[in-house]
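User: Let's play a game. I give you a shape written as tokens, and you guess the letters that built it. Ready? Here's round one.
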């Protein structure tokens, strides 16, 4: 029985986790900045523009469709920001 559970556990560990789309409140909680700061990082005309920041996409075709980001892209961005601080 224990061997079977260990085999299942090993198999689960090898499966890549599925990415998912997150909305703005979750993104802001992960990144730790305000809404205006985040949107300034996305704005090419802003002095705070950060080309590494992941871009949002719409969940539908309507103008009113919610904007979301891939969680993996947000986590990669946070990691890149942290790595840049360490290398200074």
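Assistant: Ready! My guess for every position:
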């Amino acid at each position: 029985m224990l061997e079977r559970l260990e085999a299942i556990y090993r198999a689960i560990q090898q499966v890549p986790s599925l990415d998912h789309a997150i909305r703005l409140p979750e993104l802001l909680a992960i990144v730790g900045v305000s809404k205006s700061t985040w949107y300034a990082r996305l704005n090419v005309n802003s002095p705070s523009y950060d080309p590494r920041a992941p871009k949002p996409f719409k969940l539908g075709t309507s103008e009113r469709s919610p904007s979301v980001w891939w969680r993996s892209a947000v986590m990669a961005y946070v990691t890149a920001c942290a790595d840049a601080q360490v290398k200074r």
